[in-house]
Amino acid sequence: MIKPLATLFLLTALNSFAQTPPKPYGALPAPRQVAWHETEVYGLIHFTPTTFENKEWGFGDADPKAFNPSDFNAEQIILAAKAGGLRGIVLVAKHHDGFALWPTKTTDYNITKSPFRGGKGDMVKEVADAARKHGLKFGVYCSPWDRNNAKYGTPEYIAIYREQLRELYTNYGELFMSWHDGANGGDGYYGGAREKRAIDNTTYYQWDSTWTNLTRKLQPTANIFSDIGWDVRWAGNEDGSVNETSWATLTPKPSEGQNVAVPGQANATENPGGTRNGKFWIPAECDVPLRKGWFYHPTEKPKTPEKLFDLYLKSVGRGAALDLGLAPDTRGQLHEDDVAALKSFGNHVKETFATNLIARAGSKAVNVRGYNSIYSAKNILDGKQDTYWATDDDFKTPEVVIDLSQPITFDIITLQEFIKLGQRIEEFAVDSWEGNAWKEIHKGTSVGAKRIVKLATPVTTQKVRLRITKSPVSIAVSEFGLYKDSE
């Protein structure tokens, strides 16, 4: 017979276990990275004298007076982006041509030398203000390569570049990204020298010092993007997609023959898929221009809404983010074709994912952690990121059955892990009930922040089963959804 005191102790112990969440697995995202994942789709604006030269990369010798948009309208650009479902904007404050879009004190090659706003303009401020006014996050891109600056290639230039970053970090509010290109020298104007300059990118920029002493201190919420992170990695291409199996973790590797991994040395074989059980949480950004080029060219057209939706599935739908290049024309606005493409794409995503067809369904899981409702399988249908279905430590391949009151027709499956506990799932499968038996309709691998699957043909059923078929540890699934493509 168990004594009352012993019974109380046993109940307390069981309750304590039931309240204990699963132990984190592997590298974990910082809060700023969790917020980045939730952003999902954002834009990268390229607009410098290069636009007026009808080039992709400016040489650095364009007359500042060439930068003279006839009707710049930051709100028009931001509202078009918002209609496209973009939740953030990164402005190229300085591209490789070296022209600064803000009144910097570091170089005369800046917007105050142009006719824009009578020489008193600040395009970084106008875009930042418009973005925040309409609820979009704001970030900056400042190219380390400067084809105009006479000091480029010397130690003095690093102080200039860091001061440019300091100005951008301190004068334009909180940033969600600090975006760093991997371009590392070449031919340029360089103050009139008109020559080719090479630098050792493993030592010249001193990225560790810059990111530690400037970015982290002045903009702690900013995600640092480059080929190798620190917070967000390049996908390894400019096609707008990552591998179907893509891990949010990465162990950066240097290029062959070099001893340190730095921007400009992306490991092309590693970046698109990440590193399973990698040392750091460094998810992928899929950057791709809305048109063919990053800058506006009159002969180009934007990608179709159908193509953009496909890229969404291959980026956001594989645990990454989609970064669309937006190119204002010589007016300083997005072309009407771009606006229309963005709006149609945004509507497609919004309408498709408006309603989870199984949100009100019943769920029955084979295991719930500690028999505690905190970790109930119902959590995967509640539409909340911070609740999740978790299993006991020794239950690594569970399943849950979703039972509906009537049949539904769907062709899109979504699955999300509670990434604050790491990326745990390695394989999963989804089945539909057909007649009197289960039929597997999809099997996949990595999940992470979000996995979206578009089925080849729609499925109609009244019962669905989710199976986690491979995981090194117990699972923590935050969302499971079934949707019908609106197109």
What does this molecule look like?
The protein is α/β, with parallel strands linked by helices. 22% of the residues lie in helices and 25% in strands. The chain has helices at residues 4-19, 31-39, 49-53, 74-83, 123-133, 155-171, 207-218, 305-315, 336-352; strands spanning 41-45, 88-94, 137-142, 177-179, 185-188, 195-198, 223-226, 232-234, 249-250, 280-281, 284-289, 321-326, 362-365, 389-390, 399-417, 427-434, 437-444, 451-470, 476-483. The chain has an 8-stranded parallel barrel, surrounded by 5 helices. It is globular, with a radius of gyration of 25 Å. The model has no long low-confidence stretch (mean pLDDT 95).
Mind sketching the topology for me?
Blueprint: H1 4-19, H2 31-39, E1 41-45, H3 49-53, H4 74-83, E2 88-94, H5 123-133, E3 137-142, H6 155-171, E4 177-179, E5 185-188, E6 195-198, H7 207-218, E7 223-226, E8 232-234, E9 249-250, E10 280-281, E11 284-289, H8 305-315, E12 321-326, H9 336-352, E13 362-365, E14 389-390, E15 399-417, E16 427-434, E17 437-444, E18 451-470, E19 476-483
Parallel strand pairs: 1-2, 1-12, 2-3, 3-4, 4-7, 7-8, 8-11, 11-12
Antiparallel strand pairs: 5-6, 9-10, 13-15, 14-19, 15-18, 15-19, 16-17, 16-18
